[in-house]
């Protein structure tokens, strides 16, 4: 019996595509009692039975590290909620959401709408960003913490008892903050405790309920979702304070907090030690300077569920247009190198999404840099005035830019009397790349003088025809000239300019266009012949039976 030959496109080891990442279960499996305590299932079931009985379909969202508990947790919660309910119609549905289409710290409203969920329960660490429509319940989880070890390492780290220190923690460890604070406040005179704070425009619920009012407004807008009523200093300046953070925050939040405080220390519960993170602020400054000379900016929208994302998109587009630059808008979900590499025309990307889990701080693997709206706002200013802070909140970036553009509008109103807002010298001023030092001629491709000069040229050419033949020739020349200058109805088409001047391959039929321009185009064309057919593993040729 002859050996069967594998197809051409088959792989020698097809099992590698069926690999599933295994969950580490080296320790003992959690019991039902452990899961009920960790996920606060008794309080959660009481909330749905007594306070919100109208919720019929409940969706559960777990992060990647907790999804291993999802099946048993849903069974326990289903039993607690529907206990004593006889009729099937009256029972509530418990649904587990699959992998998130966005950052795991954000509520996946899109997945919830796919199953017609009345409410989404988000477990684990959360960014607390408000979403559009679906009600949300946050359960951070009851993570264990060695209080004695935290206090001992804290005293070792800060030997000066008069240091100004802000005590913070991840959402998942926030339940231990008050106990840590109570043991340290008698020894440190300038210790500040932070509490979790929901945005004012959020209707979400936190279980178990916090001791403080989660919507109490007292704190800096620079630190997201935190309040500190006992803070006595300037709420916008923490340069004299040190920050002690329990558990490692996301990379974007780490960089943000490290630029606000005099020092930033992190306690790692898994390793029981204190680390000082290394920041990449110099790289972010480099990317911001690259954006200053970029001609085409790609706007990445990671999610449309956030309440203010549409306002931010419109504002960012206004910034780019006012700076005479081009922009393209993409909705990509989770961005990766392969997705963004498809768009060669984009010089730099600006990501709009969650400020905690959606910002890509380390973008060295990407072909083009990725910046934040705050960095883009700095890059598009005439003079860069960076205070050294790296902000991640959209609202703060919008407020910082509003004063600048209001002043620009006032200048434009004053110049309506007859003076021009930009002199010719300013418009024609050379632009140099601050990173490489090279001259850049395409940093502002949509400058108004380019429109005017090209429109005048085309009008002059079209008015010089004296007879029919000359008019026809002029029409022919005009079409060729318009093709080279990318004018479509007196409008500059920058995308066509890129396609013709920078693309090596312009698509099928481009060779006929060149022949037409040179006058060698054969109108009759060639005979249509049958080509090869079949599939990739064996094409069939028309002239023979070979494959």
Automatic annotation (TrEMBL):
Listed GO biological process terms: protein histidyl modification to diphthamide
InterPro entries (UniProt xref): DHP2, DPH1/DPH2, DPH1/DPH2_1, DPH1/DPH2_3
Regions that span the bilayer: none
This protein's pathway: Protein modification; peptidyl-diphthamide biosynthesis
Keyword set, alphabetical order: Cytoplasm, Iron, Iron-sulfur, Metal-binding
Protein's cellular compartments: Cytoplasm
Span list, region Disordered: 405-431
Cofactor requirement: [4Fe-4S] cluster
Comp. bias regions, Acidic residues: 405-419
GO cellular component terms given for this protein: cytoplasm
A GO molecular-function annotation: 2-(3-amino-3-carboxypropyl)histidine synthase activity
Keyword Protein biosynthesis belongs to the record: no
Pfam families in the cross-refs: Diphthamide_syn
Keyword hit for Protein biosynthesis: no
Family named by the database record: Belongs to the DPH1/DPH2 family. DPH2 subfamily.
Role according to the record: Required for the first step of diphthamide biosynthesis, a post-translational modification of histidine which occurs in elongation factor 2. DPH1 and DPH2 transfer a 3-amino-3-carboxypropyl (ACP) group from S-adenosyl-L-methionine (SAM) to a histidine residue, the reaction is assisted by a reduction system comprising DPH3 and a NADH-dependent reductase. Facilitates the reduction of the catalytic iron-sulfur cluster found in the DPH1 subunit.
Descriptive protein name: 2-(3-amino-3-carboxypropyl)histidine synthase subunit 2
